[in-house]
Design goal:
Layout lengths: L5 H24 L4 H27 L10 H15 L4
Helix pairs in contact: 1-2
């Protein structure tokens, strides 16, 4: 039986958290009972916190590199979303 590397374990944990947050998001969006919806939203928030912790750990160890965005692309996206926010997209 093989031993999993730390990178593999963290990658699996991150994938699981992504799936979990997607599910809780759907559940809360489709919930009729407000008390249950609020509980689901609280859990969703907690799951996002866990997901962020796992991502940050992976990123700090170099397992999930994220290249810096080019300023020109950032500016283009800002313009694109500003147009959408004003209703012209």
């Amino acid at each position: 039986m093989g031993v999993y590397t730390e990178k593999e374990v963290l990658g699996d944990a991150l994938a699981s958290q992504k799936c979990s947050t997607n599910n809780f998001n759907t559940f809360s969006n489709e919930c009729v009972h407000e008390d249950l919806r609020q509980t689901l939203l609280k859990i969703l928030s907690e799951e996002h916190d866990i997901q962020q912790d796992v991502f940050n750990m992976m990123h700090s160890k170099g397992y999930y590199p994220t290249p810096a965005a080019e300023q020109q692309k950032v500016d283009q996206l800002k313009q694109q979303y500003a147009k959408c926010a004003s209703g012209s997209c």
